[in-house]
Design brief:
- The structure is a single chain.
- The strands form two sheets. The protein has a two-stranded parallel sheet. Strands 2-3 form a two-stranded antiparallel ribbon.
- By secondary structure, it is of the alpha+beta class.
- Helices cover about 15% and strands about 15% of the residues.
- It has one domain: YbaK protein.
- The protein starts with 10 loop residues before the first helix and ends in a 6-residue tail after the last strand.
């Protein structure tokens, strides 16, 4: 990503850029085109659940199929101690 650290944005910023309320934010159908980062280890899983645009609404998907819907950028997420 080219940065030293990341943190969640404020709810109003997330809503403005994605069109979704926090808790229902999804990489699908965002208001603006955004970079989508995925933890690289999820690509080894048989399936994952992703928020589908409303609180409590999830879609089960093979993580390898995510890139068919939009470009993804796999990253390794580390925990700073």
């Amino acid at each position: 990503m080219g940065v030293k650290s990341v943190k969640p944005c404020e709810p109003a910023v997330a809503d403005k850029h994605s069109g979704y309320q926090v808790g229902g934010t999804s990489p699908f159908g965002t208001k603006r085109r955004m970079r989508v980062f995925v933890e690289s280890t999820i690509l080894d899983e048989p399936f994952i659940y992703i928020n589908a645009g409303h609180r409590g609404l999830l879609v089960k998907i093979n993580p390898k199929d995510i890139s068919k819907a939009f470009p993804i950028e796999p990253v390794q997420v580390g925990v700073k101690e």
